Amino acid sequence: MLRSFTSKRSLQSLLHHHHRRCRQNPQFPIFNPRLFSSTPGPPSSDAELRKYIGYTLLVLGSAAATYYSFPFSENARDKKAQLFRYAPLPDDLHTVSNWSGTHEVRTRTFLQPESIEELEGIVKEANVRKHKIRPVGSGLSPNGIGLTRAGMVNLALMDKVLSVDKEKKRVTVQAGIRVQQLVDEIKEFGITLQNFASIREQQIGGIVQVGAHGTGARLPPIDEQVISMKLVTPAKGTIEISKEKDPELFYLARCGLGGLGVVAEVTLQCVERQELVEHTFLSNMKDIKKNHKKFLSENKHVKYLYIPYTDAVVVVTCNPMSKRKGPPKNKPKYTTEEALQHVRDLYLESLTKYRGQVTDSGSPDEPEIVELSFTELRDKLLAMDPLNKEHVIKVNKAEAEYWRKSEGYRVGWSDEILGFDCGGHQWVSETCFPAGTLSKPSMKDLEYIEELMQLIEKESVPAPAPIEQRWTACSKSRMSPAYSSADDDIFSWVGIIMYLPTMDARQRRQITEEFFHYRHMTQAQLWDHYSAFEHWAKIEVPKDKEELAALQARLKKKFPVDAYNQARKELDPNRILSNNMLEKLFPSSEAV
């Protein structure tokens, strides 16, 4: 049984539907000059005079009507646009967007099969009809890599654990299962995934196909956990590939961006479930340089969170809890309330400055601030003046103080500890670049950060925190940004960010423009010098033709684009699994 996706309306769709009805329905009149007949007029001189007087009055009247109908006050930039509502959309038209609302499409085809047999039927029929059904997962990719208005297939209803081999620590699952659901179902067997990304809502098929990663210089990206998988392909039907069965295609398709087949089933190599001890502390770049090699080699998981316009670096390490020593005895110096107090104070101060919304009791007119988490407070603070550098610096300094008072330890299972509250809607760009080997780090990763921080300050970028830096071992998947044939190679991943803490269309557009300027500067100064390439779920396709051509040439130097396109030609000759992004990034030789 196929199920449809819930829909939402948009202004563009409403306008389109309205104009279509105007053409079809006589109740919506259309101006036709032929309906007006001509009559004899006054003498030409009087007629000319009246004509020009009439034009003048018309212009003045239109100007006055426009001014008083749309009075732009001083705070007009903070007002939300009101949608015009004409006629309802068709029930079968769905709007699908990614979680941050930065990319969305409207489609009449959003299919959700409940079995591999249904999926095979969908793919077969779509191939015959040459109708696109792009695979899309949970919609968490910041760049909407799985979206297309031509049609999509989603495996959310194919979410079962099919088998567990406790001895070999392997699990076979349907690709639509979400990460959190998977780890919850296999924990009774004493196993879990080797590593996790920041969140747990991804479908397994999606998190593998885009080459997602966690952190730990000894741990590879998540696609390396895949030891076999079933692909439903348009041209060859369902095929099973692994290191033993068609290894060349396996290493190409494991991080295949959904372009070589719909991933239906995946067998993953798991590890023993362990409790971890997380240690969070505040450092600075001088101390980081002294201890960086030790941090990478001695910690199973480590990441740095840099706070622009400050010298603060938040270090987060995670390691298996010692069975002999047990959990750490250290108690935190500050409570959560005390850690948040400085941020709350800034929030109240900023409310007074920007909105005057503080009552006599000292509480804002908005929801009680004691109910807000740190990331929610940060979003509300940034929303007040997101592109004012001085305001952003105040917010960043408050964040540094929050982390200083949040130093300490916590203990939990890996799926509980290895997460990160990424905040609200946002634009993000994350690059991956080589950082030497585990035995001999190149220190290029810290040089990259130093140049980035200098760039931010030189160009007065209103850059919020954090700039997140993580590490992985290499991947053997040919399309992974962390691909290397040398086992000891390590890679650093650095993410820059700008939040979209408001739904005001004008303000979101301004933040978007500033973010892409920020991203462009990092690209121009850093990417080529450090051989940095963007995460597949965060790469954005340039609109400029020259920039697009340069990106295509760059990708071709790093990745086996010709082999990838040849595999697409063999497995999906009608390109039914593709979308505009894939076609732009990997144009066929015929298209070029």
From TrEMBL:
Q: Name one GO molecular function term.
A: oxidoreductase activity
Question: What protein name applies here?
Answer: FAD-binding PCMH-type domain-containing protein
Q: Which cofactors are reported in the record for this sequence?
A: FAD
Q: Can the keyword Nucleotidyltransferase be found in this entry's annotation? A: no
Pfam families named in the record: ALO, FAD_binding_4
**Entry-linked PROSITE patterns:** FAD_PCMH
Instruction: State the source organism's domain of life.
Output: Eukaryota
SUPFAM superfamilies tied to this protein: FAD-binding/transporter-associated domain-like (SSF56176)
Q: Which UniProt keywords apply?
A: Oxidoreductase
Q: In which pathway does it act?
A: Cofactor biosynthesis; L-ascorbate biosynthesis
Instruction: Note the InterPro entries from the entry.
Output: ALO_C, FAD-bd_PCMH, FAD-bd_PCMH-like_sf, FAD-bd_PCMH_sub1, FAD-bd_PCMH_sub2, FAD_lactone_oxidase-like, GL_DH, Oxid_FAD_bind_N
Q: Where would I find the FAD-binding PCMH-type domain in this sequence? A: 102-273
